[in-house]
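Running this now, will post back.
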Amino acid sequence: MERVDPKRHLARTLVVTIAALSLAIPVTVEAARRGAEPDDRRGSNVVKVKMKDDGRLRFKPASITVDRGTKVKFVNAGNLTHTTTSDDDLWDERLAPGDKFTRRFRQVGTFEFHCTIHRAMTGTITVT
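Update: finished.
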């Protein structure tokens, strides 16, 4: 049986750990503060907005600020059907529980949206 040098084993473990961490999904402080979640294993700009209906109907987060070119993925994480509908008729998607819809925001501006089924559900995406 081969004897393992503890120092060499520790060094290998550290190298593997550092390599694994460098491949992790980048999470910016700003995204974490907003409650948004990066959602792409390759690290491209994707921010997730969940539709929730666990006692309170809402988009979570309801308001986000993203860079131009960012994709926003709407995920129906609830038990009811919801829509993500632009107030300016730019998009309108009906999502059953578990469904997803992604839209890339290429223009700077403020984009308000709502759920046509549950009018109390509203949100804002600010693109800078």
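The radius of gyration is 20 Å. More later if anyone needs it.
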